[in-house]
Every structure is written in C-alpha cells, then in structure tokens.
Amino acid sequence: MTSALTGLRVVDFSHGLSGPYVTKLFADNGADVVKIERPGTGDYARRLGPFPDDLPHPETGGMFLDLNTSKQSLTLNLKSATGRRIAERLIADADLVVESFRPGVVERLGLDYARVAAISPHAVMLSISNFGQSGPYRDYLGNDMLLYAMASTLSVTGQPDREPVKIGLYTPLFLAAGTAAALTNGALWGAQRDGIGQHIDLALMEVLTGTLDRAANNIMAVAYSGDVMFRRSKEYRRSILPSGVYPCADGYVHMVAQPFWWDRFCRTIDRPDLIDDAHFKDNLFNMAVVDELDVILYEWLMRHTKQQIMEKAQGLGLPVTALSTMEDVFHDPQFRSRDYFIRLDHPFAGELEYPGPPFRLTESPSEIRRAPTLGEHNEPILCGRLGYTRQELVVLRQSGVI
Amino acid sequence: MPLPLEGIRVLSQGLVWAGPSATLLLADMGAEVIEVETIQHLNPTRTNYRFPPKALMEGPGGTVYVDRRAEGRFWDRCGVFNYGKRNCKAVTINLNHPKGHDLFIRLAAQSDAFLENNAAHVVEKLGIDYPDLAAVNPRIIMLRFPGYGLTGPYKYYKGYGANVEAIAGHTSLRGYRDLDPSMTPPIYHADPTAASHGVFAIISALRHRERTGRGQLIDMSQAESVINHLPHAFMDYSMNRRTQEHWGNRHPSMAPHAVLPCRGDDEWIAIAVAGDDAFARLSRAMGRSDLTEDDRFADVVSRHRNQDELESIIGAWTATQEKVALMETLQAAGVAAAAVFKSDEMHGNRHLAERGFFETVTHPEAGTHPYPGGLAKFSATPLHIRQPAPMLGQHNEAVFKGIVGVSDDEYEELLREQIIGDSYLEAAK
Predict the structure, then answer these.
(1) Which of B239, B246, B385 is most worth mutating to test chain A (most A CB atoms within 10 A of its CB)?
(2) Which of A127, A231, A315, B158 is buried most, with the most CB atoms less than 10 Å from its CB?
(3) Which of A100, A321, A336, A337 to mutate: most B Cβ within 10 Å?
(4) Confidence class for position B71, pLDDT limits 50, 70, 90
(5) Which of A40, A79, A65 shows the shortest CA–CA distance to A343?
(6) For A96-131, what is each residue's pLDDT tens digit?
(7) Ranges of chain A whose pLDDT falls below 50
(8) What residues in A contact B113, CB-CB < 8 Å?
(9) CATH class, B9-228+356-416 region
C-alpha cells in the first residue's frame, strides 16, 4: 500500500523541534522531504539528548532521531551563492517549503517567500516561528516554557500558593507544530487544486493562545463572562465526586466522576448502598461532605492497584485511567496489542523502539524510516536528482558548500 | 480565490474539546463542516446539564455561558462551542430512529468525510460506522478518534483528555518537583493534540482518494497521539531504560530555567538562560556582573548544579520588578524572558493586536464578543471567522432540503416526529 502523501516534494530548512515535527508528519506519510542541514554541525537538535548511555554523539541524539524519521539529509551552506543556487533548484520542484529561521533570516539569505514564489508559484511556504514575522515581539527569544507563559496557559497551571508550573518537556511546541502541519496540509490541498501557492506565517504563540486547552477556554470565559474559567486552584473538584489524580496501592490513578455518574461511582468503590444515601446523593455539590466521602474513597483506593481500579471503573462506565510512568507506557497492554511502537535500526544508535504514527490511515498507512545521518543523501540528491558528477561533489565539498 | 478546503463536506460529531479543536481548523480553512447533533440528548460540548447547578455556574470551572447565566437557549451561548464551531453548520438527527438513521446515511452519501470522537461503541451501536457509510459512499473518509483507538483491550474505555494524558505517560512527567503527582493540576493537552493530528490525517486521506478514488477509515488513538509529543522521555526509556520523572519548570541543559515572582499579586516571569553569554547578559541586566565570577554560577554545569541558589538570588531581584517591563528589558538585553500573561491580558495584548489576532463577531444568541481568529496568517486565502457558531438545528432546512433532497412534506414529518428540531426536548418539559 502507498502512503497518503507519496509524490509530495518538500524542501525543509527547519531545525530544532517544531519545524521538524511538521515535516516528520509529512515524511512519515510518504512525502519526499529533503532536510537541508548546515555543513559540519547539522541541525542543532543533533546536540540534544537523551543519548545512549549518556554519551553525546551527533548521530545518536534521541530528539533528533525521533523528529527526523523518513527524511533525507543534504548539507548545504546557504550563505554561499552556490548553496543558494542548489536550494533554488530544489525549490523549483517543491510543493512545500518549510523554514523556522528567526524572522528576517530568509530575507537575508534571499530565500524569502517572494523569491520562492518567483521560482515555484504553486508552492506553499510555511514560516514557523515563536512570535510570527511581524509585531512587537517578532524578534523576542522564546522556548516552550516562554511561549506557554505568553499564551496565558501557564498562568492557570499549578497550585495557587506556588509558582505556575509548565507541562511536559517541549510538549507545547509539538502541540503548536501539529496544528501547523494540519494547516499546512490544508493550504497545500488548495494550492494544488487551484494552482496558486501561498505563504503561511505561523506564530507558535498565537496557535497556543487559540488552542482549546485552558488558554482559549479562559479567553472565551473572559470575553463571555468577564472572568476566567480556570485558575490555579488547590481543589479541582466541582462536586464531591473525585476529579483528578489520586493515590492507590501501587501508584496513582486519574479519576473523572461526573455528578450524573454517582451510581457508577458508588458501584466502583464497592459501596452500592450509598447510591440512595440522601446524605451524599442530595449533596453532590456540597463540598462540606467531601471529606466524609474521601475517607471512604481513599480507604478503597489504597486497597487496589492502578490497573485494578482502571478495569473496575471502566467496566462500570467511569473514565478512570492508571497514571503511567514511561516504563508503564512501554509495557502497556493496549499500546502493545496495537503494535504502536516501531523498531528502527540506525547505523550509529542501533536498534531502538520509537513512537509509532499518531494516526492510522488504514488504506494508506504511514511508513516510518530511520532518521538520516548528516549529509547521508548528498550524493543521491546532488548527483541523482540535480545531475552533478561525483567529481563535482568533491568541488562542492572542498569549497565548503556541502 | 477559494479557501483551501472549499467544496469538502465534513460531517462531525466532534465532542467536548478535541472535536471543536478539529472542526475549527477544518472550517476555518473553508470545509463545509456540518455538526450532527440530536435534540434527544444534551450535547456535552454545549452543556452537560438541563439546568446547570449553581455550583457549576459560579466560581472557576464549569461551562462558560454568556454572563454565566443558564437561561433561555443557554446551549447556544456556550463559549467553548461558539469558539470551536465557528464557520460550521449544525443539524439535528435522532439517530436512534430508523428515519433518522436513514437521513444520516443519505447525508453521508453526499459527504466527503465524517469525524467523530464518541466513546468507541457509539457509532457501532448506531449503525453509522465506517462499513455502513462506505456501503453507500466508497469515497467517504471516516476519522474515528476515541481515547485509546479502535482495537485492543481498552478500546471501549472512556476518557477525557486528562485521562488520556495519564495513560500516555504525560501526567507523570509534569508537576512540581517537590510534590507528588496527586498535586498535579489537570491539563487538557490531549484534546487539541488529537485534533491537529486528526485534521492532518483527513487531508492526507483526501490526497489518497484523489489518487485511488477510494475513501478510508482512520483509526486514531488519542493516547498514542499524545505519546508522539513525549520524545525526550520516550527515547530516554528506549535508549537507557531510564524512567524520567517530572522536570517541573527546569530544563535538561538550561539554568536558570524557572518561573520567578514579580511585583504585584500573583505576577510571574519565565526566564530561560541557554549558555554563558546569555547568563552574562542577565547578570549585567541585574547589575550583578559578579555572578559570572562566582564559582557556583560561573559555568553551565555549575549553574545547572546550583539552580536552587541561583533561582533564589534572581527571584529576589525579579520580585521587585514589574513583569511586562522586565520582559521588555530582558528581551532587549538578549535574555529569553516572558511575562506570565493572565487570560484577561490577552485581549489587549499589543503583539496580538498588531497582528490582528482577535476578531469581533456577533452571534444572534450570544451577542458581540472578541474571538481568537485564524490560527495562522495565510497570504492568499486569509483565515477569518466568516460566520458565528451555529445554533442547535440552525441548518436543518438548508442541509436536509438543499443537500439530502428531502421534500417539504418529508421535512414536516421529520419535525413532527421530533427526529429533527431546534430545541432540546428536555428543555421543553
């Protein structure tokens, strides 16, 4: 079976985390992605850990290996006229151009959208940056924590008497990048149908501000009611039923029990007698009785494992899940039974398990290949595609172009 | 010039937060998204309660209606629905009734895609699963994205985004370094994550259909989708069998990397210092160039080892500063720093204002309010809010008569038999 995006040609100038996440989605689904890397050092993500046995090596960085699957690596010095000419020849055949330089850099390199459109009028170009190509924050520095702060999401994450606390390492970047990929794929669809390309100026801050996690919900709450929906709070329960993370015999579970599921909750904790107990049943929103219920709940939780609690609750229709460590994730029967993890062999990193594709197109599945070594595809691209001879490759190398 | 997805008709049962996050992207790009609801049951994206309890309407949390009043057609005045379903249409069909089921199948025969994130058993029981639709429309693309996917022991498990975060390993990687996970605030990263991947998948399937003439089923697990966002911890386990715990606000190499207090009540600044040069710039901005000579902080490794002390020194200084002015000063000095903005500061934010991020829209029930507009700037086909979110059943007539070809008589019958309608039956009681 052929992957869905087979035939799409992508020239990828992006580096780091968010841009490469966009192009990974394209590459894993069959697009031909040529990743342009700086000669010598390559994508700075090659410096990011984790590394096998904590021994840094430019070809074994875990972040790079995962974010650059299925791509081809071409080294190119974009500051040389020859490097730019080669880039332009690749752009001439491209459907999509992606860049994540700081704003202003593609203009200095002569590879801005005006130039791309002149070479390849039907192409879509995605510029993905922290704050966008315009506006007072354009040149600000940012990273995942800073963007989460400026999108206002950080302000409501954490305990009220403490500093706000961010979410998992880098996750806001991947969230915004996934949205960027979806928008870019849509723009490409239209561009190819209508034969007219366009430029997408995507600001990670704006995507995170408009994302329907806590950020956009709170922004809508302010617009609709003058006050926020979420704030940092000790208690996340809005009724006496549990909602959040709770301890159990061997770890933690995440429980969500809505008030209209009171009967399911009582059965879950082996207390069907409470279903009609007016003391609780008539006071589901009365937090004065929550401590009494918690005594019963915690006592039951501490007698059961997270897997037992999940199975019992889910069997009764209550959304409760085990709180998994990454070790648990690796051994989880659900992910294993779906063959979610994939194994890839890499000449430097060896055989490792990687996250599988985030979705399964049953008729045109993703096909994920290992990340390239630096400049691994110089010869097939420069000689095979662009017609240079091998001796000319040596010229390019000695001139510092590749 | 037409919007990119113009001409693509997408049926949706896109619920709660993942659903609206997906329909927002599709409809903003011009797809004709038709939300299929029912008047028999409240749509949890609009409201969970016939008459929301007072406790849910007051204070933080709960569904946000205009002015926090659950009066009249309050389900048309819900912030989440009205944000995520802008540019969409809405119809109602009682899918449990044979005539309703028939109506849906006829609509699906005229559609390009159907996306749904119900619990996994729902469409199977209703007889609107992929095989049912493909039988009348082999070109249809169906995206199903329940919590855990369409196979496996958890297939029928239920889950909100926060449940999905837990089973996917994200919850164990966040929170305060000194507190246990039960003090970990719920977050809702899984919902928009699934939506972005799902929209990418649908558009990819369109491309496959263009080539082959055939639609397909997309099986998406929200939990697997979240694991794709955890490569650092995942690869560490894969490579080193190391189980990472929460990083809090810290970073594998940067130090300081912290959220520190500013002047005022609950005001904060996030600061991330990547190397020696950045630290020298921060020290200069603080008037404390001596810090770069201090053995505890003079190099990246020392700073990483001595973060507690470093944070208290810098925090004592930031606590005397106003957060926005401090951000501007530090950024001008080349130090990565961000004010922790509160939600009510976003509407007036000068960067967003200059880029035209918010758009003001008038909704017939909700009134006139600012909403975040398109999530990226498209140069040829700008993304805008072209129409407000639909009211319950608003497009019944246009869709059923105009697209399905229902006659006037049949339409009256559907109304009479309450297979379609524009008001919840419960509300009429």
Answers:
(1) B239
(2) A127
(3) A321
(4) confident
(5) A65
(6) 999 999 999 999 999 999 999 999 999 999 999 999
(7) none
(8) none
(9) alpha beta
pLDDT digits (tens, 9 = 90+) for B30-54: 999 999 999 999 998 998 666 677 7
Chain B, residues 74-93, CB within 8 A of chain A, namely 77, 79-80, 82-84
Q: Which of A48, A53, A169 sits opposite B173 (nearest CB)?
A: A169
Strands B217-219 and A360-361, bridge-based pairing: antiparallel
Instruction: Read off the pLDDT of residues A222-280 as tens digits, 9 standing for 90 and up.
Output: 999 998 888 888 767 888 999 999 999 999 999 999 899 999 999 999 999 999 999 99
- ipTM, two decimals, is 0.97
* Angstrom distance (rounded) from CA B30 to CA B384: 10
Between CA B161 and CA B95 the distance in angstroms is 26
What are the chain A neighbours of B133 within 8 Å (beta carbons)? none
Residue A352, beta-bridge partner list: A344
Say which range, A398-402, B111-115, B423-427, has the weakest mean pLDDT: B423-427
Q: HSE-up of B213 (CA within 13 Å, CB side)?
A: 0
pLDDT at residue B60 is higher than 90: no
Strand partners, A126: A98, A200
- CB–CB of B151 and A152 under 8 A? no
Is the pLDDT assigned to residue B123 strictly greater than 70? yes
Q: Give the residue on B whose Cα is nearest the Cα of A163.
A: B259
The answer to whether A285 contacts B166, with C-beta atoms less than 8 Å apart, is no
SS3 label, residue B10? strand
Each domain of chain A, given as residue ranges in start order, spans 9-213+338-398, 243-324
Pick the CATH number of A9-213+338-398 from 3.40.50.10540, 3.30.465.10, 3.40.710.10, 3.30.420.10: 3.40.50.10540
Contact A319 B216 (CB under 8 A): no
- The arrangement of secondary structure in B257-261+268-339, i.e. its CATH architecture, is 2-Layer Sandwich (3.30)
Amino acid at A381: I
Q: Residue A35 is inside which H or E element, if any?
A: strand A32-37
Q: Which residue is closest to A222 within chain B, CA to CA?
A: B344
What b/e sequence results for B101-111 when a residue is b if at least 16 CB atoms lie within 10 Å of its CB, and e otherwise? Answer: bebbbbbbeeb
Contact call for B216 and A364, based on CB within 8 A: yes
Shortest CA distance from A358: residue in chain B: B225
Residues from chain A that touch B198, judged by Cβ atoms under 8 A, are 359
CA distance B202 to B239: 33
Among the listed residues A130, A98, A95, A93, the one whose alpha carbon sits nearest the alpha carbon of residue A111 = A98
Provide the residue count of chain A.
Answer: 402
Average pLDDT over residues B328-346: 97
Gap between the Cα atoms of B13 and A19, Å rounded: 31
* 3-state SS, one letter per residue, for B364-405: CCCEEEEEECCCCEECCCCCCCCCCCCCCCCCHHHHHHHHHC
Chain A residues whose beta carbon lies within 8 Å of the beta carbon of residue B231 = 62-63, 66-67, 170, 355
Delimit the domains of chain B by residue range: 9-228+356-416, 257-261+268-339
CATH superfamily of A243-324: formyl-coa transferase, domain 3 (3.30.1540.10)
Burial B17-48 (b: 16+ CB within 10 A, else e): bbbbbbbbbbbbbbbbbbbbbbbbebbbbbbb
Helices (H) and strands (E) in chain B, counts: 19, 12
Alpha-carbon gap, residue B205 to B219, rounded angstroms: 12
Mutate to test the interface with B, among A28, A44, A214, A338 (most CBs of B within 10 A): A338
Positive or negative, the CA dihedral A304, A308, A313, A315 is negative
**B15 and A CB contact within 8 Å:** no
